Amino acid sequence: MFAEIYPLVRMPRRFGHFDYSIPANLSLQAGDLVEISFRNRIIRGVVKKTKATTTVKKTLPVVSILIKNLMNADDIARFETIARAVVQSPSTILHSALGQLRNRNNLVQSNVFKSQPFSVSKEIVKDIQKILKDTNEDVNEVFFQTSNEGAFALISVLRKKFKNQILIVAPREKLTTELIGLIDLGDSAQILHGHTKPRDREAIIKAWAQGTIKTLIGSRQVSTLPAKKIDAIIILESASDDYTHLERNPRVDPRRAVELLKTQHSAKLFYTSYVPSLETIYKKIPLFLCDLPKPIVINLEAQEENIGVPFLTDQLFKAIYTSLQNRKSVLLSFNRKGVANRLQCAKCDHIPTCGSCGSVPIVRTDDLACPNCGVEMWIPAKCPGCNSDRLKQRGIGNKRLKTEIQKQFPEVTVGIVDKSTNESNADIIIVTEFFFKNLLHTFPQKKFGVVAELSFDNALIGNDFRASEYATFKLFRLMTIAEQQNATCLIQTWVPEVVRSMLNIQKYLLSELSLREKYRLPPISILATITNKKDKLEDTGTVNQENLPELFNKPDEETIFIDTASYEPFRSTEKSE
């Protein structure tokens, strides 16, 4: 007898399974974790299937069995589907999910994150229970427009509703620790993320596969793990760009991976976020939307709003003053760091760029810093383009903005919260995206009287065709925070008509989907670079999902996914599908 085995190592896409002989004293079946000899070393592998014959002339024997029935044939098929979708070998996908599991008798540690369980609002629970009751039992996917507070309440209700396993996928590690520390999910709840210790990680993976863990909360990795029987899957912040993973292989989007888990286990899939994603609209998933108080949209071009201070309009000034008078703090969102946005030559208009990645560095007090790769540079004394000494600071960063606002409100403290600075105890705080993703608590203390976006256009500007979709996410996130705080919400922009159209979120996303369809962009299709090795030609275009298998099997071509941020979406694409 022989076994087809996937080695648990990163391998090129062209490699599939390897045939090994089965010793007489071993009994193997699909899904067993075994030890094998591979390239002169002993590693782990997963049995794909067993067979009576092989075409391989010389095979090595399987060394030993580590874990019986780690997964089943459906799990293996699921991993193979993911591998085809992201153009990787199954071995690479299995390795990223399982690592090098060992047959150690590790016990799952008790939940050490329990602190002060949070009592979920009874009104929110009743609303969720009513929605679940009114939802047709045949509906397997549902979207809830809610904050993470509402999502935590949904999880609490679902945990009591379902008796089998529940999988919760979060975009960031912070949310996993908050959830398990605030909501009572039972003694068999565990979290798994990039900082989980290797021994604990192995124990959790095995216990989840065996069904002894009933609730698993995690980030990217948990979306592919084999499970015993899943009843429900919840995706937190399903429209967040944190799920996009284009920096390194394997580029697995956990939101797509859990769809396979849902099908395999006949589970219910619940999306929760501030707004639905375009994929949710495209798939026509039932939506449960909420009514949020409308923000005050301020036109930055209006002359009556100009008081001579950058990004401080008349309405915002009055709102800040009133909030401070009421002894409330002020939250100002401004996603630009440094003193200025860029350096630019007044003579030749040259803009110095980062020598490592080509991005435009921000200007700090004493140097330049690349926002993309983090490289720090000296401020050049002369223009690199024309050698003149007329380099000027253009734009405004949060440090200069802090100085300007402090002049207007000298009796209070003004602070900055970003990756390098945390002055969150100030009366007025100017925050970047770092604050929302890493510091904002799911159940925040109600201390803000004003929540404002100083320049909403920063979110709209970019070479990524998904910028407007992510901008709606940030807009509704700010509106939700303002509602939680019972605060006034103000949005400053140069394009107020665009912001107002976004407030009707379903209509706006349908129009955005229509535009994507016109230019054949995701989720209608995928973006890929097709490289012809023989002629050394490279072409960039869009490819429909159903045509991928035929494309992958062409011997002279290799298909790889590209970083869609570098693709020009509004260029005519006449390439064949």
Oligomer: single chain
The CATH superfamily label of one domain reads P-loop containing nucleotide triphosphate hydrolases
Average pLDDT metric: 85
Give the CATH architecture of one domain: 3-Layer(aba) Sandwich
Report the β-strand fraction as a percent range.
Answer: 15-25%
CATH overall fold name of one domain = Rossmann fold
Question: Helix count?
Answer: 16
Which radius of gyration do the C-alpha atoms yield?
A: 27 Å
Sequence stretches where pLDDT stays below 50 over 5 or more residues: 536-540, 551-577
Q: What's the β-strand tally? A: 27
Give the overall form. Answer: globular
Helix proportion range:
25-40%
GO molecular function: 3'-5' DNA helicase activity; ATP binding; DNA binding
Organism: Candidatus Uhrbacteria bacterium CG_4_9_14_3_um_filter_41_35
GO biological process, one term: DNA recombination
Keywords: ATP-binding, DNA-binding, Nucleotide-binding
Give a written overview of the molecule.
This protein has 577 residues and is of the alpha/beta class. Among the domains are: 2-98, GIY-YIG endonuclease; 122-288, P-loop containing nucleotide triphosphate hydrolases (Rossmann fold, 3-Layer(aba) Sandwich). The protein contains 16 helices and 27 strands. The strands form 6 sheets. Strands 9-10-8-11-12-7-13 form a 7-stranded parallel β-sheet, with helices on both faces. A hairpin with a 4-residue loop joins strand 25 and strand 26 (537-543). Helix 3 packs across helix 4. The chain is globular, with a radius of gyration of 27 Å. Mean pLDDT is 85; it is low at 536-540 and 551-577.
